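Case study 2.
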Amino acid sequence: IQMSLNGRALTATIKDAIDNGLSSADIKLTYDGKPITFSYNSGTKALNATIPASDGLIHRVTIMATDKSGNIQRKGLTVPGSDSMAQPFIDMNSHWAKLNTAYLYNRGIVNGVKTDGGFKYIPDTGITRSEFAVIMSKWLNTDMSLYKDMALPFTDNASIPSWALDSVKAMYGMGIIQGTASGGKLYYKPNGAISREEVMTIIGRTQARGYAEADLSSFGDGNQVSSWSLPYVKTLVEQGIISGYSGKLWPKDSVTRAQVATMIFSLY
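Prediction:
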């Protein structure tokens, strides 16, 4: 998939060198995660669409194509917003993740913390398992009522904060969060830090099978990714959702609030 944007005009070329025969039924175009109309010429392999008029905010437009063999490819790009776009967090004006967090805040996916100094995102602190469950349930637009009676198997259920309980139930019920086994018991560790490879695994479980897997040998610590996380890390790297930094993936490190926002932003 190759795509570009000129004003409101989106153009793309979508080719399949193996199966060929792609049609518009095999392609999905979304704007902030919601489908929009497009035309696709199977002869020229060209897709054309007009995105909504600018409202001054940044947006995401993504193409996903599935070939006859079930292989999936996706490509996304950011639609720039106004230079004067409001920043809701007082500590994000010069942070590298400022656009990502503003985008997700405007969609009700992430929130901040009210302090005496103002409304902050606190981007470089770690995120807990409970906080991540809430973010995931919001991103997936989960109907919590479907899981309100879900029985959780975790030994530490009583430690799950009330504000996160519905989200944890939903994520467990969907098979996205499974907990950690220790000493013959299963724990959720709701207030504990969550690692980068754990986050990538949880995100990967929300995706359909069929994405290509990247070769991680270019990363200095690619061989340190746990086996249970490896296929998910590979597919997210191949999609460009995960790029690492300083030549490494840092799979065992705790993930920060800014890093989580960047991953979720890239999924739109």
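The chain has six helices and twelve strands.
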